What we know:
The protein is of the alpha/beta class and 627 residues long. 32% of the residues lie in helices and 19% in strands. The protein has 2 domains: 3-176 and 225-310, Alpha-Beta Barrel (TIM Barrel), CATH 3.20.20; 337-514 and 549-626, Aldolase class I (TIM Barrel, Alpha-Beta Barrel).
Amino acid sequence: MSRYFNNKEIELLAPAGNFEIFKGIINLGCDAVYFGGKNLNMRLHRKNYNFSDEELFEAVKMAHEHGKKAYITVNNMYNNEELDQLKEFLLLLGKINPDALIVQDLSVIPLLKDFNVNIPVHSSVMMNTHNLNSIYALKELGVTRVVLSREASLNYSKYLSAKTDMELEYFIHGDMCVAHGSQCIYSGMLFGQSSNRGRCLKPCRWGYQVKQEDKESEPHFPLAVKDMFMYEYIPELIDGGITSFKIEGRMRDLDYLTMIINAYSDAIDRYIDDPLSYDRTKDSSLLYENRKRDVSTAYAFGKPGLSNINSRYEGTGTLYSSGKVFSTATEEREITNEKLQKINSQLKEHRINQTEPPRLSVKVNTIKQAKICLDLKVDDIYLSGDVFLNDKPFTKEEINELMKIKGDTNIYLSMPHMTFDSQFDEYAHILEKGLQVDGLLATNIGGVWAFKDYNLIGDYPLNILNKKAASLYGELGLKRYTISPEANLSETISLLNTTGAGAELIVHGSPTVMYMEHDLYDNVDQKKDSILYLKDEAGFDHPIFKDCHGRNHMLLYKNICCLPILKGLHEAGLSHFRLEIAHLKEEEFTKIVTVYKKALKDFNACEALYEELKQEGIGFTLAALGL
């Protein structure tokens, strides 16, 4: 089944949560169906969902008999222990022969080559493809289609379509997330249930009060976005260069999906048949009356602001397809002596012959913080590419000044979490004009590809969780990488034992646990200089920092502190210790850097240093390492 408008192919891509639903929708007006196996995919909450191996075989066969395409989701993140299972599954898929695999973790690509499994690869929305250089990099790796970032507008998709011959897929209907794809790690760090691994417990759907200074809003749902609804914009999707119109909903039931597929299929056919008299709204009322949440066009036509925030049914806290509660507000786990004993015991069991001395790296928000680090002789400084307001981005003069006085310290210029095409041009321009830095901190595959001739370190937004992905990034140009903050202790130890010399770990502070295009400061008086907090239903205040690009960063409200386990981490293979403390005020920032310099010089001092910090009343967590 194929559809064309003005010689452009159009595909309506439908989800199927299990084989019974697949059999119910394969005769409908979709051109392709996507679905997943029982493991290794991004929809794992419901036991009676997903496909057995036998059902995968049968579903692909049925799709082809109906003249339709079948895409299988292999779109999870994988740890080292799961690589063997992944290998076996890819070999099975080579026999099943679907039309494509939808992939998040880059480890899948070399594994397919290793076993000579020739199935086209589509990059998942969880690869967060949002710039030309990422598309160039993925194309070089053999990817044939990208699912665009949910924050991409149709104007931008049109630009990408004109600049590349890559197929573009775009979500047109269904559940959306407030955070950029793969850039919400809070569920994984809080519960051990990762949004990047199909088990998100949706802290974004909690109720919060918005706080700034002495003002608090009434409790509502400021992170709960509306569902996507592009039914009335079929012409704009086609004009935007979109090949595949993707319906979200692998956890939805058959009746609901039947309604959605029929409405969109009919709309596409009517537009193709007679665009001049096309009725955009024929089934709008039907879809609206049967919506799960309220609806919007999200970022298709630009930033939606507060109009994208939902209130319909959010107070129930339920998963609409099953009635189960996602999660309730939960305290970030404190560090206990019992937990520390278990962790240190486990680390001792995995000692290696460590020959690398410990090195300390620190991300900084200001030149003042950078100079503190130079005074304390930190090994590596990362100049933030997402400088938090009200500080300003680093100037050329400031960077040149730091390079003149840096001594033995290496200074790296960080890229923003989201690095758009204009920013690539800016970085390339200033580097070509002679800006001297020791290297770059890359946050996305586009940055790795574009600046492969520079000394590159991979930042945590790359979400590297296994040795195969780390190796591939090494081949692309990374000198070392930052272990995903969602990695638990066993996963971290495994990575240290296999890639330790090339690995870095955040041992203090807070990474960004939700990275958002959505601006929560729209809820308050933007003229104020104070930080905004979200107070959850359990009374905990989550800090929200706005960066120099206007994007929002939620941080942990308890800083990570690995002081009590530093020695064990080093003995297990960690040589690059990182402080993610750019958000701290000067006095506390200086204190933390000083403490870790002392700790890495003498691991036997860690216990006393930790007790000293605790006495100052600072609450700490081990986040994913403590789960």
